[in-house]
């Protein structure tokens, strides 16, 4: 019955309407024992080194090619945990609903969120719903909790000279998919939003001495690797021709004058691993359905005259060298 | 002849220093992205010119757009590039934050569905651009007239390339050759540069936008300069973009532009009024103009800004005292740092020196 | 600003043509040059600005011929 209506201020009252909404839309989708107790806070097991992250999702449109805000919020959150080598366990979701939001659309997003949480191996243990005035929008704030196994030390500053730099697939897909929706360009590009647990588990359990992991989200590869170069005090040197970009994304960027190196993803990671393990790491990444396009794209060098500490250099196919900086404000729409 | 030979030639050039200007902002970007400066002999210097329409638009144009977007019942429609350009007091982006109505689009033609849905609102398109974009505006005007649409207007800042190049050369710019703008030439034809090549005895090479296309065109310019020292004429136009550029250009597009737009004088940011370097709507279509005439005032945000000298090729962005210090893409002190095609932005974001 | 991209015309109708850029499809305005389905065209700001001459090789050859004359 609820599934056909629209969100009104009443659904945020805390009374009967709120109860109905939570029961019919949220509880049924999540089917979590912890949630079903309807307590003021969740009490869950876990100990050791805890990884915590929080994120807010404001993307429009709410549903896009290759995903929706529900799937996106789980992927964005668990991927942040994974990048420190943590095993994601729990997630909380705060929903801010605008008046006029179709309840069927909300239901679709929540089901997708629940499905992605199951895929990523995290349990939704706490949630909240508020309604504000507006025009049918939906925002989700999440917190993710994971546990870091003994002996795992993955951090931005760990890159060493000689290490190989890998990415798990093509650049810019999520960003292009969202922009295409916003600008009403028909495209076959799909968002790549995906949980990266299988890849990270594969690397860690496969004995790869992973130095650094980063999910390549807002700001794109250029921003992410520049930050890693700065954090480690090394120079990162890339081969432009080795960086995977799909033909569709390349042309999409050409149409709009954008650079795929600064377009965000929601299901791709950059990894720094010892050079001698690069081949093995590549194989592990490619074994995941989300990592089939993985590639070695460059290496870490000791700072020198021509390759200063904290610099990100890219050899162009012509044989030139381009120095990259972090993304400079471009006035593009928000993509996550 | 292959690319490797051209690269070797450009790297090993040992003649007198050559300054070559890339006039077009898209070339400036492509040169940085391909790492081309590092592929050249240090006797060949590339200089960025006034080929970013956003950068050369005077501040009074931005001020007028801001005034329009804050006027009830009016919506300004624009390419994204223009959003952050500083006017004398603020940018369009800031005006939008104050409640101004500004809509970003990919194509000027996107204004038609907007205007159809809201007949009571007047949509003003910020029609900036060079010869490449002028035919798009001409198509737009034709459709407005044919369909009798009453709620679309244009605020124009149309500029043309030969006029400004002539001005730079006449002012004694120290430039030995020009990488001519490929997409301007698609419309105008390579012949648009012939009078300039003859008048100043300088080589012009029309180039595409890939690395190899740019290198080949640079090779052509350098070679012509070398031949000139042996007595051959340097004043010639070469076409290194023949897949889309012909000598005559797109004559249908030229005719359409002529039908709706007259040649006019135009003010360039930092360079003042340049005779015959712009286009405005013809008098009979003045009803479609949202007040483009008289937007000649040009206000510097920071007295130290050297955009004018950068645009004329007299100074590299990195030589400006504000560059990278107080002037950055996040806090631009001049238009060249705002547009993603501006010389200063490109030098900053690619550490070009 | 003068960004323009080559694409292939899929269909033509009224004032527009559907142009494909490796899987991205844009309704581009026509009216500046005569085109038909299958043509390669240069699109700028949502308008077809010019036809691209048939073979890419022609481009390369043209370029290199221009250089050969010089070197």
Report on the structure:
The complex is a heterotrimer of chains A (336), B (353) and C (71). Chain A is an alpha+beta fold. Chain A folds into two domains: 2-148, 60s Ribosomal Protein L30, Chain: A; 156-324, Alpha-Beta Complex (Phosphoribosyl-aminoimidazole Synthetase, Chain A, domain 2), CATH 3.90.650.10. Helices cover 31% and strands 24% of the residues of chain A. Chain A has nine helices and 14 strands. Chain A has helices spanning 16-30, 33-36, 69-82, 103-120, 173-183, 197-205, 220-232, 247-256, 278-287, and strands at residues 49-57, 63-64, 67-68, 87-98, 123-132, 138-148, 164-167, 186-187, 212-215, 235-239, 269-273, 295-301, 312-315, 321-324. In chain A, the strands form three sheets. Chain A has a seven-stranded mixed beta sheet. In chain A, strand 2 and strand 3 form a beta hairpin. In chain A, helix 1 runs parallel beside helix 4 (103-120), helix 3 (69-82) packs parallel to helix 4 and helix 6 (197-205) runs antiparallel to helix 9 (278-287). Chain A is globular and about 70 Å long. Chain A starts with 15 loop residues before the first helix and ends in a 12-residue tail after the last strand. The model of chain A has no long low-confidence stretch (mean pLDDT 93). By secondary structure, chain B is α/β, with parallel strands linked by helices. Chain B folds into three domains: 3-45 and 162-240, 3-Layer(aba) Sandwich (Rossmann fold); 55-161 and 249-288, HypD, alpha/beta domain 2 (Rossmann fold); 307-349, no CATH class. Chain B has a six-stranded mixed beta sheet, with helices on both faces. A five-stranded parallel beta sheet of chain B has the order 2-1-7-8-9. The longest helix of chain B has 19 residues, at 211-229. Chain C is α+β, with helices and mostly antiparallel strands. Chain C has a single domain (4-70), classed as Roll (SH3 type barrels). Chain C is 21% helix and 45% strand. Chain C contains one helix and five strands; from the N terminus they run E-E-E-E-E-H. Chain C has a five-stranded antiparallel beta sheet, with no helix packed on it. Chains in contact: A-B, A-C, B-C. The interface between B and C is large, with 56 and 32 residues.
């Amino acid at each position: 019955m609820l599934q056909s209506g629209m969100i009104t201020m009443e659904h945020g009252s805390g009374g009967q309407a709120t109860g109905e909404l939570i029961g019919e839309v949220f509880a049924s989708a999540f089917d979590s024992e912890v949630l079903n107790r309807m307590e003021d806070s969740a009490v869950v097991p876990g100990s050791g080194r805890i990884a915590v992250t929080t994120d807010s999702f404001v993307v429009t449109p709410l549903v896009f090619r290759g995903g929706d805000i529900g799937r996106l919020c789980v992927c964005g959150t668990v991927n942040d945990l994974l990048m420190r080598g943590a095993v994601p366990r729990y997630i909380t979701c705060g929903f801010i609903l605008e008046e006029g939001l179709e309840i069927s659309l909300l239901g679709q997003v929540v089901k997708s969120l629940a499905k992605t949480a199951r895929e990523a191996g995290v349990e939704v243990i706490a949630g909240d719903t508020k309604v504000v005035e507006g025009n049918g929008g939906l925002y989700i704030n999440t917190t993710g909790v994971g546990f870091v196994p003994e002996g795992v030390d993955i951090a931005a500053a760990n890159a060493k000279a000689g290490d190989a730099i890998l990415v798990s697939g093509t650049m810019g897909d999520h960003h292009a998919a969202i922009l295409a929706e916003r600008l009403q360009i028909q495209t076959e590009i799909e968002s790549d939003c995906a949980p990266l647990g299988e890849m990270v588990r594969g690397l860690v359990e496969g004995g790869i001495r992973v130095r650094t992991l980063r999910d390549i989200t807002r700001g794109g590869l250029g921003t992410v690797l520049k930050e890693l170069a700065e954090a480690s005090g090394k120079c990162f040197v890339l081969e432009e021709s080795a960086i995977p970009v799909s033909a569709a994304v390349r042309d999409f960027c050409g149409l709009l004058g954008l650079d795929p190196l600064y377009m965000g993803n929601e299901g791709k990671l950059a990894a720094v691993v010892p050079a001698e393990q690069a081949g093995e790491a590549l194989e592990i990444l490619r074994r995941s359905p989300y990592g089939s396009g993985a590639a070695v794209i460059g290496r870490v060098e000791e700072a020198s005259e021509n390759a200063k500490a904290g610099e990100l250099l890219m050899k162009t196919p012509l044989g030139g060298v381009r120095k990259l900086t972090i993304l400079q404000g471009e006035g593009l729409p928000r993509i996550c | 002849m292959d690319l490797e030979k051209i690269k070797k030639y450009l790297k090993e050039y040992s003649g007198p220093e050559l300054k070559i200007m890339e006039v077009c902002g898209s070339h400036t970007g492509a040169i940085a992205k391909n790492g081309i400066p590092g592929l050249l002999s240090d006797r060949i210097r590339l200089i960025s010119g006034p080929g970013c329409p956003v950068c050369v638009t005077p501040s009074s144009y931005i001020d007028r757009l801001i005034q329009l977007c804050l006027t009830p019942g009016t919506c300004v429609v624009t390419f994204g590039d223009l959003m952050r350009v500083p006017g004398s007091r603020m940018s369009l982006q800031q005006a939008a934050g104050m409640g101004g109505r500004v809509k970003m689009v990919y194509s000027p033609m996107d204004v038609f569905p907007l205007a159809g849905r809201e007949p009571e609102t007047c949509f003003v398109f910020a029609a900036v651009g060079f010869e490449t974009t002028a035919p798009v505006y001409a198509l737009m005007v034709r459709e407005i007239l044919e369909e009798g649409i009453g709620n679309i207007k244009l605020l124009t800042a149309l500029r043309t390339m030969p006029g400004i190049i002539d001005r730079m050369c006449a002012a004694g710019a120290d430039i030995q050759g020009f990488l001519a703008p490929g997409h301007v030439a698609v419309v105008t034809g390579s012949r648009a540069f012939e009078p300039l090549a003859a008048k100043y005895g300088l080589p012009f090479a029309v180039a595409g936008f890939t690395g190899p296309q740019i290198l080949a065109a640079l090779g052509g310019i350098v070679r012509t300069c070398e031949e000139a020292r042996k007595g051959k004429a340097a004043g010639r136009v070469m076409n290194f973009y023949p897949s889309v550029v012909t000598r005559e250009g797109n004559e249908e597009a030229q005719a359409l532009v002529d039908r709706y737009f007259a040649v006019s004088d135009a003010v360039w940011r930092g360079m003042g009024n340049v005779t015959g370097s712009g286009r405005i709507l013809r008098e009979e279509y003045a009803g479609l103009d949202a007040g483009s005439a008289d937007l000649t005032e040009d206000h510097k945000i920071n007295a130290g800004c050297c955009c004018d000298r950068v645009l004329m090729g007299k100074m590299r962005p990195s030589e400006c005292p504000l560059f990278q210090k107080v002037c950055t893409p996040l806090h631009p002190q001049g238009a060249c740092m705002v547009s993603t095609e501006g010389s200063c932005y490109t030098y900053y974001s690619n550490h070009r020196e | 600003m003068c960004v323009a991209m080559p694409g292939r015309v899929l269909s033509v109708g009224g004032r527009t043509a559907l142009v494909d850029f490796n899987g991205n499809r844009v309704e581009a305005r026509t009216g500046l040059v005569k085109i038909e389905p299958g043509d390669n065209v240069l699109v700028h700001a949502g308008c077809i600005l010019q036809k691209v001459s048939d073979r890419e090789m022609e481009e390369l050859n043209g370029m290199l011929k221009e250089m050969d004359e010089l070197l």
